[in-house]
Amino acid sequence: MTDAATAPAAFVDLQVHTTASDGALAPAAVVEAAAAAQLHAIAITDHDTVDGLAEAAEAGARLGVRIVPGVELSSHFEDEELHLLGLHLANRDAMRDALADLQEQRVVRAQRIVETLNAHGIPVTMDAVLREAGDGAVGRPHIARAMLAGGWVREFREAFDKWIGWGRPAYMAKDRFDVADAIALVHKAGGLAVWAHPGELATPARIDRLAKLGLDAVEVLHPSHPPYLVQRLVDHTEKAGLLPSGGSDWHGTQEGPRKLGGQLVPKVWLDWQDERLAARAAATV
Q1: What is the DSSP letter of 16?
Q2: 10-residue block means of pLDDT along the chain (285 residues)?
Q3: How many CA atoms lie within 13 A of 74 on its CB side?
Q4: Distance, CA of 99 to CA of 95 (rounded, Å)
Q5: Which of 2, 119, 122, 185 has a 20 to 30 Å separation from 204 between CA atoms?
Q6: Separation between Cα atoms, residue 161 and residue 76, nearest integer Å
Q7: Which element (helix H / strand E) includes 150?
Q8: Angle at which helices 126-133 and 92-119 pack, to 10 degrees?
Q9: How far apart are the first and last CA of the chain?
Q10: 149, 179 in Cβ contact below 8 A?
Q11: How far is CA 97 from each of CA 50, 51, 94, rounded to the nearest angstrom?
C-alpha cells in the first residue's frame, strides 16, 4: 500500500489536441495515452471546436482520467495574434454556437491557401486537405499533411517553413477576433480564459491590460518557454492576481519537444483553477 510519502506526484496537462481539430489521435486515444502517462487530468483544447469533448469525457470516466473541457481560440490583441484557451467550459452549447462561424472561416482560409499554393506550382487540392481533416476543424496542419502525402514537401515541418508559415508565400492570416470578445465568450460558456504560450509578449503591462479585460490565467509552462521565461511569467502572473497554467500543446505525434505530460504541470494548479471557479459561482448567487 502506497502512502503520501511514496505515492507518485500528481501531474496534469492543460493543453492537448485531438482529431476534432488538428491532432493526430482521436479523443479516446488521447485519453488512453494520458492514462498510460499516469496523468491525473488533461484539458482537451481543440482549435475552434468542442466536438471532441464528449468522446474524451466518456473515455476519461472509463480510464480514471479527469477531462477538463476546453477550446483554443485565435484572437488579436495590440496587433498581435493571441491564442486564448477556454478551460472548464460548463456550457458547451454556447461555445459551439459561437464557433460555427469561425469554422466556416477556417474552410475559406484553407481554400485561399490552396489556391495560392496552386499558383506557385504545388497542385494540392482542397479535397485532399478535407480528407486529412476528416470531421475536424480545418487548419494549416491538414494542408501540410496533404502536401506531404502528395510528395510536394519532404517532411511536415517543411510545409510551414517554406510555404504556409508566417511570412511565407502561402501564409494567410485568420480573420481578426478581438481578445476581449474571446474572453467574454469563454466566460459566457462558464470557463476560465487562459493566455496560451505567450512567450516574450507577456510583459507585465500586457498581462495587466488583459487582466482588466477579464483574463484569468497565463500558460506559463509550455514547450516553447525556456526556464528563465517560465520563472518570469510565474512572477508576472502572480503579481497581476492571475493563475498559472501549463500544457504540452500535444498534437498526438512523437516528434519534437511536445510530449504528453512533459511539462510536469502540478495538480495544485488545477486545484487553484477549481477554487477560482467556485469563488466566481458563489459571488453570483
Answers
A1: E
A2: 53 97 94 97 95 97 98 91 96 88 84 97 96 85 95 95 94 84 96 97 97 98 96 97 97 82 97 97 84
A3: 15
A4: 6
A5: 185
A6: 23
A7: helix 140-150
A8: 150
A9: 43
A10: no
A11: 10, 11, 5
Q: Which residue has the cell 484557451?
A: 85
Residue 193 · residue 187 · CB < 8 Å: yes
Q: How far, rounded to the nearest angstrom, does the alpha carbon of residue 100 sit from its chain's CA centroid?
A: 18
Q: Which long-range contacts link 1-10 to residues 24+ away (Cβ below 8 Å)?
A: 8/38, 9/266, 10/40, 10/266, 10/267
Grid cell in block for residue 120: 506557385
Let me know how long the chain is.
285
Pair type for strands 11-16 and 41-44: parallel
What's the rounded Cα separation, in Å, for the pair 28 and 67? 11
Amino acid of residue 193: A
Query: Distance (Å, rounded) from C-alpha 258 to C-alpha 145?
Result: 18
Q: Where are the beta strands (DSSP E) in 115-216?
A: 192-195
User: How is residue 108 written as a grid cell?
Assistant: 475559406
